[in-house]
Design brief:
The chain is α+β, with helices and mostly antiparallel strands and 133 residues long. The chain has one helix at residues 88-132, and strands at 4-9, 14-20, 22-27, 30-34, 41-45, 48-54, 57-63, 66-71, 74-79, 82-84.
C-alpha cells in the first residue's frame, strides 16, 4: 500500500498530520474508506470512531463529526473534537471544567460592569449637581 497525507484538524489543534495507509470515517450511510489516489470526494462525517492505519500500526480516534475532503494524495478532515479512543472521559471532564471557568469569568465580568456603571452614574450625577449650584 502506498501512503498518503492525512491531516485531522480541530479549532484548537492539529490532531494528526502525517502519512496514512488507509482511513475509515463514520458517515450517515455507514462508513467511507480512503486509500492512496482515491477520486476527489467530500463527505460529511458523523460522530463515531475514526480508524487510521499507518506503517507503525492502527489508531482509533473518537470524533464528534465534521467534514473530510480527499484531493489527490491528501485527505483533510475538519472536526470539532478528535481524541484517542478511551481518552473521552478525561477530555470531556477538562472541557466541562473549561466551560465552567469561562461561565464564572463572564459572571464576574458582568458584576464588575454593573458596579462600574453605577459608579459612573453617581459621578455624572455629582458633576451635574455641582454645575447647577
Amino acid at each position: 500500500m502506498t501512503p498518503f497525507t492525512l491531516t485531522i484538524l480541530t479549532p484548537r489543534e492539529t490532531v494528526y498530520d502525517g502519512k496514512a495507509l488507509s482511513v475509515v470515517l463514520p458517515t450517515a450511510d455507514g462508513s467511507a474508506g480512503f486509500l492512496y489516489r482515491r477520486e476527489r470526494t467530500t463527505v460529511e462525517v458523523v460522530p463515531g470512531d475514526v480508524k487510521v492505519v499507518t506503517e507503525k500500526g492502527e489508531y482509533l480516534l473518537e470524533t464528534d463529526g465534521g467534514i473530510a475532503e480527499m484531493t489527490g494524495d491528501t485527505l483533510t478532515y475538519l472536526c470539532g473534537e478528535a481524541y484517542a479512543k478511551g481518552e473521552a472521559d478525561a477530555r470531556k471532564a477538562r472541557r466541562s471544567a473549561e466551560l465552567d471557568e469561562e461561565r464564572e469569568r463572564q459572571e464576574r465580568s458582568l458584576a464588575e460592569y454593573k458596579i462600574n456603571r453605577a459608579a459612573l452614574i453617581r459621578a455624572f450625577d455629582k458633576i451635574r449637581r455641582s454645575r447647577t449650584k
